[in-house]
Amino acid sequence: MFNLGDKVVYPMHGAGVIETMESKEILGEVKNYYVLKMPIGEMKLMIPVDNVNNIGLRNIIDKKTVEKVYSVLKQKAEINDSNWNKRYRDNMTKMKTGDIFEVAQVVRDLTFRDREKGLSTGEKKMLVSAKQMLISEISLSTDMDSKGIQEYMDEIINEDALEQE
After folding, report:
1. Model pTM greater than 0.90?
2. In terms of pLDDT, which residue wins out, 3 or 117?
3. Do 75 and 108 touch, CB atoms closer than 8 A?
4. CB 152: neighbour CB atoms within 10 A?
């Protein structure tokens, strides 16, 4: 169970803050919902309280873990030469876990592939989404602004790309 003000991650959407809890009647059934405010895009999500375990809602990482995420971005990219459809499914599976290290791998690998061979339209959208997921969680964890995190991530990945060439 989470509390008001908790910073949590909703897999495939990113990190946010539990702003309120509300009860809603839908199809004659009253359910309790967490109302999650997302820092990127000012979006609000309603998550059924009784479904948080199934969807993988979790607390955000701590500041110490942020450095481990950055180290994943610095690692050598894993080159997946299968067709774009298989790559897309593999990366989507990683993102759905909600595990920040898996999401960081997706960002690292897709960024490298984009530079080397280009990405399909679906993979480009996935890269943008994965970056937003990382940035939202790191932003809430470190209280840094999203633009600064984006710039730092790009710097790390660009350094890595030069070393891999």
Report:
1. no
2. 3
3. yes
4. 15
